[in-house]
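dumping the sequnces here before i forget
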Amino acid sequence: EPEVTQTPSHQVTQMGQEVILRCVPISNHLYFYWYRQILGQKVEFLVSFYNNEISEKSEIFDDQFSVERPDGSNFTLKIRSTKLEDSAMYFCASNSGTGVDTQYFGPGTRLTVL
Amino acid sequence: EDQVTQSPEALRLQEGESSSLNCSYTVSGLRGLFWYRQDPGKGPEFLFTLYSAGEEKEKERLKATLTKKESFLHITAPKPEDSATYLCALGFSGGYNKLIFGAGTRLAVHP
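..and the predicted 3d for all of it:
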């Protein structure tokens, strides 16, 4: 069964460093998303991406964040100058765009900022 | 303001003891209510999508129902492997947009 994959599973970085989180959405899906979940809190929407551009973003998704689909399979989230409060689980999700609204989530990347 | 509230926050059941989880919502332009299961340290795993009041979906020991104001996830004769956090999420008209998640219900099923 097709699934969303994410790498790395755990990323540790120093405050102020840049990190790139990688996702491979389900093949042939058209809509891509990033969410985050701070430990013990709700899953929060960050950004949605379609046709090589951002279609919606939350207040959390400020200039520190950027997304890119560098090729036909990968979808990345870049966090510039990480802060302690960026420590969280980051989930990638994808949707087929065929009229079914279900978003399928990856296993997540745990980001720890020291 | 669009809101989704789940109750209870935590639920402890004995194996075989059926119960229901609640997801109440206030939202304009609802397009789909979603149930996910989340195991510790893992991503949300899709369970059900409901679109219309009166709709029901079933999968093994789980059944999800939807009214105009809330959704229930009924668990019949649960087993220890059903222990997880169950998340409710709302989608919006326009399609393919963000999901807004509730805080979840942590379910523990003991033998």
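The first strand of chain A starts at residue 5 and ends at 7.
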